Amino acid sequence: MANKQLLSAELKKHFGFDTFKGNQEAIMENLLDENDTFVLMPTGGGKSLCYQLPSLIMEGTAIVISPLIALMKNQVDAMRNFSEDDGIAHFLNSSLNKQAIDRVKKDIIEGKTKLLYVAPESLTKEDNIEFLKTIKISFYAVDEAHCISEWGHDFRPEYRRIRPIINEIGSRPVIALTATATPKVQHDIQKNLGMINATVFKSSFNRPNLYYEVRPKTKNIDKDIIKFIKSQEGKSGIIYCLSRKKVEELAETLKVNNIKALPYHAGMDSATRTANQDAFLLETVDVIVATIAFGMGIDKPDVRYVIHYDIPKSLEGYYQETGRAGRDGGEGKCITFYTNKDLQKLEKFMQGKPIAEQEIGKQLLLETASYAESSVCRRKTLLHYFGEEYTEDNCGNCDNCLNPKKQIEAKDELCAVIETIIAVKEKFKADHIIDVLIGKTTNETKSYKHDKLEVFGCQSGVDEKLLNAVIRQAIIAGYITRDIENYGLLKLSDAGRNFLENPSSFKVVEDNDFSDNDEDVVVKGGATCAVDPELYAILKDLRKKIAHKLELPPYVIFQDPSLEAMATTYPINLEELQNIPGVGAGKAKRYGEEFVKIIKRHVDENEIERPEDLRFRSVANKSKLKISIIQGIDRKIALDELANSKCMEFNEILDEIEAIVYSGTKINIDYFLNEIMDEDHQEDIFEYFKESESDDLELAIQELGSDYTEEEIRLVRIKFLSEMGN
Questions:
Q1: Domains, the chain
Q2: How many whole angstroms separate alpha carbon 491 and alpha carbon 418?
């Protein structure tokens, strides 16, 4: 009781709160009684307070072992804000010089410091161990404790050395805290930290305010993300990418589309990283594009959306990262882009690691794929993964519940699955069970003689996707269990055996299909593909009028695909016009004014609502290549030599040069033409294009005859377009 009153008074005094959240009070009482404590609490539940407040009450200094420098800085700054003395909290890590380390040690010796944050690597240094032996320690807090487990999403080998070092420094109570741990990971943490008998406090993993959605990942993903961010004007968001390269590229793309964004990854120098993190916390930028190095423990309560550009390597990682949204209980949108090709890439990255580690990694990926592809309530799937049952039929806040699919009766299929698991003696994974069910002859089915089983091929006419859905949903329903430690072997529960004896209705929803989402819908040529045929006709007339006035073929002004794009996305100024394929700055300046004027008038007169993603501008990856080709031509380097230097075929470099001139850039390749072709030849081809209504290559080859090669015609067409159109 005394501890209860003390905690309430100190909570008000130091942090200004009147009440505790969830289990916080019970956790702190347990720690004040000097008991080992295990805390499993979702992001936003107030884990940090569980050790911060007791550290202020207990005698001595609490040692907080934390995995990230950014996290330590963030928490030390937060603690100093609650106190008049900056010495109240310090960190010891590789970012400090000797002078700073001496100042930290002085404050600890003088009894000013109640919280010392230490990186696990710093904890293992001999001089730090010797120093910590000399001070009074109140307790040890192991933050982000899932880093201990190989089954956790962010395994750190140094974390497995914590217990021996605690024993060397001096035993005191331990509090381990994590936001994500399956029952398997929880056991691993407790065992490794020597705290099997710890009091366990487990909060619900359900975050009702978070909306979960998985979208197909297409080549238009950057456009989709920009469109989404622009619909969230002024709100804070995090975008997670797996590679540092993608972080840099995407941050750049967002910036050129007038979105205030900065990158964050471990490869950046620490000053830039810290500055970018602070800019996000202080809201001078809206979006941070980051690898998973960002955000662990970042205390920004009003992150309104978390986007996953790539599917994470595990559901723990996914849960932890999505948990950064809506920590204040307000809106939090979690959008993930998924294609199963990403999983294949992630599996390839694992090659070269020890076999056991590869197997663990594959199991974690399978769980992630199952979550992404399933049409079951996302909340139900997530909570089941963390050992929690969600009994609602419809959570009302995920894509699958808001757009429910029709349920299919699958009683017979489930009976067949259960019979097959029994027939193979519960020693095989889901993919093998499905191979047996559909009667697929593989090396594995043959070598185990499973092609001779009575159940072999008993579901030969059934779609694999449906059987996958049956297995996944039977696991959630508790009929089947997946033995994660044994490479995901499927086992039967008592409920599963009972089901086989007394089958009842078992309805499933088919999985979402993400197999063919890597291609964009390709729009075929011809006026019919323009969204607005009326505008397309107007633009063609305008092009004809300008071409007639300048005595040029119409295609020299703008090609048909460019006009089609204009009649689809309605650019109304020169900047937007440059986003149209085949329209560079030169072309826009030379011919664009009249086109955007006529488009704007058409939009206004017909009250057209323009596409939201109109302003998408890409950071052209090829821009460096194009610039170096133009520079090479300026220096009069022979085009075949230029192609060799770029490791390109000759026709490939012609493709690039054509794109350059079609976009409106003027170049001069006379030096090369005069070297390989006589003037008469050049003249004939040039005159043909001057009089022709089309720049079509096949037509030109047909008309000009066999005296001219395809390459010669293309080269002169480049000269013609550059001189006459640009």
A1: 2-202 (3.40.50.300), 210-341 (3.40.50.300), 374-516 (1.10.10.10), 527-615 (1.10.150.80), 623-725 (1.10.10.1390)
A2: 9
